[in-house]
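The authors assume throughout that readers already know how a fold can be written as discrete tokens. For illustration, here is how one protein appears when written out as sequence plus structure tokens.
>
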Amino acid sequence: MQTVICPGSFDPIHNGHVDVIARAAKLYGNVIVAIAHNSAKKYSFTLDERLAMAQETFEYLDGVQVELMPNVLLADYARSRGAVAIVKGVRNAADFQYEVQMASMNRHLTGIETVFLPSDPKFSHLSSTIVRDVTRYGGDLTPYVPRPVQKRLEVKVTETGLED
């Protein structure tokens, strides 16, 4: 069994994320879902809320653990956790172009490789931004987000209008 890191902000996590992480668990056996904070981003959900949603989402899946990623370089974090690779899902060419730059830098910094898993076509249009927008305007996201996320989205939109 090998360990890999699936990093992201997951604001919120959606079924495209779930699909990639479940596939990574099948391939490698042990996946650490690393919930990251980027100070340049404005989040709809707090770090603790994002952590809780991911934990609830993956509690059923063997080999998947969820944790907060400390404020360090991803490559250093992956190495500290004994990961053999970083796994990233890619939806399209724009995702790939961005992610390949990050992968190259991570490899040059620490030697850790990044493995890209293409999005399942039924989820290739999903992003956390789209999930928040559809929720904000009353759309049904039942097929696109895990139930724990849907519940929190409903509460958040009622309480705050899901402001970005």
In short: The CA atoms of residues 145 and 155 lie 14 Å apart. The mean pLDDT is 92. DSSP finds six helices and five strands in the chain.
